[in-house]
From TrEMBL, chain A:
Residues binding phosphoenolpyruvate, per UniProt: R291, R327, N446, D447, R457
Catalytic activity as recorded in UniProt: L-histidyl-[protein] + phosphoenolpyruvate = N(pros)-phospho-L-histidyl-[protein] + pyruvate
Ranges for domain PEP-utilising enzyme mobile: 151-217
GO cellular component, one term: cytoplasm
Official protein name in the record: Phosphoenolpyruvate-protein phosphotransferase
GO biological process, one term: phosphoenolpyruvate-dependent sugar phosphotransferase system
Cofactors that this protein relies on: Mg(2+)
EC number: 2.7.3.9
Subcellular location: Cytoplasm
Occurrences of domain PEP-utilising enzyme C-terminal (ranges): 254-532
UniProtKB/TrEMBL annotation, chain B:
Task performed by this protein: General (non sugar-specific) component of the phosphoenolpyruvate-dependent sugar phosphotransferase system (sugar PTS). This major carbohydrate active-transport system catalyzes the phosphorylation of incoming sugar substrates concomitantly with their translocation across the cell membrane. The phosphoryl group from phosphoenolpyruvate (PEP) is transferred to the phosphoryl carrier protein HPr by enzyme I. Phospho-HPr then transfers it to the PTS EIIA domain.
Record keywords, A-Z: Sugar transport, Transport
InterPro entries: HPr, HPr-like, HPr-like_sf, PTS_HPr_His_P_site
Name of the protein in question: Phosphocarrier protein HPr
Domain HPr: 9-98
Length: 539, 100
């Protein structure tokens, strides 16, 4: 990316994938004109009318948009029908405030509360409130205005864009959305993804100049006044994206991926329960890796058994008959947790982390094992231990787990010992894989590559050396897969390699038939397997 | 699930099974359903100091009930018993589409 005479480029975060090439259209929040306040009665009446009008407008938008958009707008309608909220505003008018000021200050209070929430979901909802706030303020100021007209294929650039304004724009001719702020989890981002409108957020400051824009939702870039060469490269990327996208959606809905006549199981990795809300998650053959570290984050205390059980149970219920592999706490390394991990290790990646840490803190580990043992009776649960070096460690974990199950059962609580497997990420475990009495193996290619290549994966200076396709890494993957094939034990891979189409041919050739990827990568990976199966390249 | 506290007030407890807790869509469904009843209905996360009007979506959202928390419901008025039963059912059945 470079600025200068040839056209300037800006990088943000992807909110919706896709490409747009067209005129840049700037949208201001619209300060609007000043309003002359009337008497108390007039002000109360003005607000009542504005609320009714806004309610009607939103209902119309919802009716024409339908589906997910309608559900999103329903929240705004519910707020307008919230008597507690509205009464508070009328009370404020009664104290002498003009209608727009009373409305705005009450909504601003709510927005500030949402923004202060630790939860990213609640924070994102604040833009729905801002949307509603601005709509009613515009009506009160008499500048409700015409729906925004954008030229066909235009790239709309705004600070942030509320969901209702998004829906007022006619996107039938394409176009894209470039936001200086905004969030990938906002409602407008959900709408953009549902409509297939490319969207990049958090672009930061952009100069006021610029007539033509190239928006790349995949690379998360915005290029202004591009050179002919920039346009040519962009159009090429857009064309290949268009081709692959169309077939990926169709392929995703097919039952099972296969390669050379063998089924390839495609599972998903989840970081937290909410990840199951991804639209593509339903097409997965199961959950190949549920990380549990989210339970340790953002709380002053470690999570209790019930909290953990509820999280595991929610995922098992979602999965139904499909397998769910939950990984026990993988703290330590680059993931320190106060009150759990050890401080002051000179080399935490080679320190007390993963299962090593859990075995060193049996009182904390036992709480997780209890929750897992109870969850095991609720679905198709498998449990795996991270960062295992020796067979003894697996057996020590199994012993603790079995004791926990026995105690639960003695107390009359439904519990069972689930299938136990290990992550293969320490080179020693990969080399001595046959020494482990594991029900399954899951290759953690990120750590495996970092340990085999002796490269800290967070150190950018080593990027050229940090090649997961290095023959040494592939050799260990092959050995593990071969061991699984010989002994009838399933072997999957859940690292970043599985979600990288360029790595797929090598992984399949290593003998892997089970891969676990983020839900967002599922369509592309399924499509790539399909293409490789029919003799094509990675694309 | 339901117990009759006295002649007027009906109460219920139910675990919030929704995967992401009491967020926008569940909150909208809950308040919509609550508004179908004449009864005064209050809810709170078990043990919270304040009861919240079940018909106010802003307050239900602000309650920030997390996945797995227990929601307490109480209602008084002519159709209070039915209101508590309906809300318990809505939450226990994980806010099915078409409900509320």
């Amino acid at each position: 990316m470079q600025g200068g005479a040839a056209g300037s480029a800006y990088r943000g975060r992807t909110a919706s994938i896709g490409f747009a090439h067209g005129p840049l259209v700037r949208v201001d929040a619209g300060a609007g004109g000043e309003r002359v306040a009337g008497t108390l009665v007039e002000e109360a009446l003005a607000l009542r009318k504005a609320i009714d009008l806004a309610s009607g407008q939103i209902a119309d938008l919802a009716a024409s948009a339908g589906g997910e958009a309608a559900q999103i707008l329903e929240f705004q309608v519910a707020l307008l029908e919230d008597e507690d909220l509205i009464e508070q505003i009328f009370a404020s008018i009664g104290e002498g405030r003009p209608a727009d000021v009373a409305w705005r200050s009450t909504l601003d209070e709510q927005i500030a509360e949402y923004n202060a929430a630790a939860d990213e979901y609640l924070q994102a909802r604040s833009s729905d409130l801002a949307d509603l706030r601005d709509r009613v303020v515009h009506i009160l100021r008499g500048d409700a205005g015409e729906p925004l007209k954008i030229p066909s294929g235009g790239v709309v650039c705004a600070d942030d864009l509320p969901p209702s304004r998004f829906l007022e724009i006619d996107w039938s001719g394409g176009g894209g959305l470039a936001l200086l702020h905004g969030s990938p989890t906002s409602h407008v981002a959900m709408l953009a993804r549902a409509r297939g409108i490319p969207m990049v957020v958090q672009l930061g400051a952009i100069p006021d100049a610029g007539a033509t824009a190239l928006l790349d939702g995949e690379g998360a870039t915005l290029e202004l006044d591009p050179s002919a060469e920039q346009v040519r490269v962009f159009e090429k990327r857009r064309e290949s994206h268009r081709k692959s996208r169309a077939s990926a959606r169709a392929i995703l809905r097919r039952p099972t991926a296969s390669w050379r006549g063998e089924h390839i199981k495609l599972l998903i990795n989840i970081q937290r329960v909410d990840d199951l809300e991804h639209a593509d998650a339903q097409y997965a053959d199961g959950i190949g890796l549920m990380r549990t570290e989210f339970l340790l984050a953002g709380h002053s205390e470690l999570p209790d058994e019930e909290t953990q059980f509820q999280a595991y149970d929610a995922v098992l219920r979602w999965a139904g008959q499909r397998p769910v592999t939950i990984r026990t706490f993988d703290a330590g390394g680059d993931k320190p947790v106060p009150g759990f991990t050890f401080d002051g290790e000179a080399n935490p990646f080679l320190g007390v982390r993963g299962l090593r840490l859990c075995l060193a803190r049996p009182e904390i580990f036992a709480v997780q094992l209890r929750a897992l043992a109870r969850a095991a009776v609720r679905g198709n649960l498998k449990v795996m231990f991270p960062m295992v070096t020796q067979a003894d460690e697996l057996e020590a974990g199994r012993k603790l787990f079995a004791d926990v199950v026995q105690r639960l059962q003695a107390d009359g609580i439904a519990a069972m010992l689930p299938e136990l497997g290990i992550m293969v990420e320490v080179p020693a475990a990969a080399l001595a894989v046959s020494s482990f009495r594991a029900a399954f193996f899951s290759i953690g290619s990120n750590d495996l590559a970092q340990y085999v290549l002796a490269c800290d994966r967070s150190n950018g200076a080593l990027a050229p050396l940090m090649d997961p396709l290095h023959p040494a890494v592939l050799e260990l993957i092959s050995r593990t897969a071969e061991h699984g094939r010989r002994t009838g034990v399933s072997v999957s891979l859940c690292g970043d390699m599985a979600g990288d189409p360029r790595c797929l041919p090598a992984l399949l050739n290593c003998g892997l038939r089970e891969l676990s990827v983020n839900a967002s990568a599922l369509a592309q990976i399924k499509q790539t397997i399909d293409r490789l199966s029919s003799g094509g390249g990675v694309g | 699930m339901l117990d009759r506290a006295d002649g007027q007030i009906f109460t219920g407890n139910v675990r919030l099974v929704h995967a992401v807790g009491m967020h926008a869509r569940p909150a909208v469904k809950l308040t919509k359903l609550a508004k179908k009843f004449q009864a005064q209905i209050s809810v709170r996360v078990a043990g919270a100091p304040e009861w919240i009007n079940a018909k106010s979506v802003a307050k239900i959202m602000a309650m920030r009930a997390a996945h797995g928390s227990t929601i307490e419901i109480k209602a008084s008025g002519s159709d209070a018993e039915a209101a508590v039963a309906a809300l318990v059912d809505l939450i226990a059945s994980d806010f099915p589409d078409g409900a509320g």
